[in-house]
Structure formats: structure tokens, C-alpha cells
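Work Package 3 (structural annotation) set out to generate three-dimensional models for the target panel prioritized at the project kickoff. During this period the team completed the workflow that converts sequence records into C-alpha cells, so that structures can be stored uniformly alongside our sequence database. As a representative example, we reproduce one entry of 112 residues exactly as it appears in the project archive.
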Amino acid sequence: MNRSDRLKKYWEEVRAGKRPAPQRNSNGPLKRKIRCNHHWLKGTEVIVTLYPHGELGFREPKRRAEYKLPIADAFRSAVVVTTNRIASRVKTLRKEGYGLGQARRMAAREVL
């Protein structure tokens, strides 16, 4: 039985009342393991931690070093990267002969 089948069975038992529902600690940090393919990483996974005081933490599995940054800075970086990608795609579409408005719409659809 694989993990997804075990989780389905677990939640069916919770809904049926055979098991108690899990209690969540709303004050603690939220951790998730995500896949990320980047040349800076040795593997393909990163553990992302969201702290209640407004920070994001990134670390590789089996590593102690955690890199933290405020959520506002992460949001600002994401917006800058996305707008730069859209602008570069608009530039290439303009060179291919598309009009400015059409190139912007196409680039936004492709990048977002």
C-alpha cells in the first residue's frame, strides 16, 4: 500500500469517526517539502518553512543551514523576477513582428 492509499484510508477513518482528527498547532511554523530543480541545489528538494512572525526559511534536506528572508522581500523579488521575464518575452515577441499589445498579452499568458 503506497502513501496516497494510506492517507486516503486514514482520512476515511477520520470522517467515519474511527480515529480522532489531527490537532494542528496554529502558533508554530508550517513546513513543506517541495521539489525544486536549480543548479544551486545538490538535490531536487527544498524544505520551506513559513514562520508566524513573517519569515520564510529555506533549507536542503539533511542540512542544518537555513536561509531566512522576510515575506515582503520574497514577494518583492517574485514580482521583480516575473515582470523581468514578461518584459524579455515581450521584447522577443516584438522582434518576431507582433504588436505591442498583443505581445504583452501573449507574454503575460505564457509567463503567468
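The CA atoms of residues 49 and 86 lie 28 Å apart.
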